[in-house]
Amino acid sequence: MSESREHTARVMKELFDLGLVRRNVATKPFVYQLADREGRRSLKSSA
Fold it and tell me: CA-CA to 38 of 20 to 30 Å: which in 14, 26, 32, 46?
């Protein structure tokens, strides 16, 4: 099942608010990157 663009945007915003990803606001749509410390730590703990 594929999620809507709106759903994906909400999930990415939530991850951004949690500090797990960074976003480049110079682009539309935003480009997201895994946050250096918190994002990687979160990935390791969920593996």
Answer: 26
- Say if residues 27 and 38 touch (Cβ distance below 8 Å): no
Q: What digits encode the pLDDT tens for the residues 6-38?
A: 999 999 999 999 999 999 999 988 999 998 877
Main-chain dihedrals φ then ψ at residue 19, nearest 5 degrees: 80, 15
User: Residue 44: is it exposed, middle or buried by C-beta count within 10 angstroms (0-12/13-18/19+)?
Assistant: exposed
3-state SS string over the chain? Answer: CCCCHHHHHHHHHHHHHCCCEEEECCCCCCEEEECCHHHHHHHHHHC
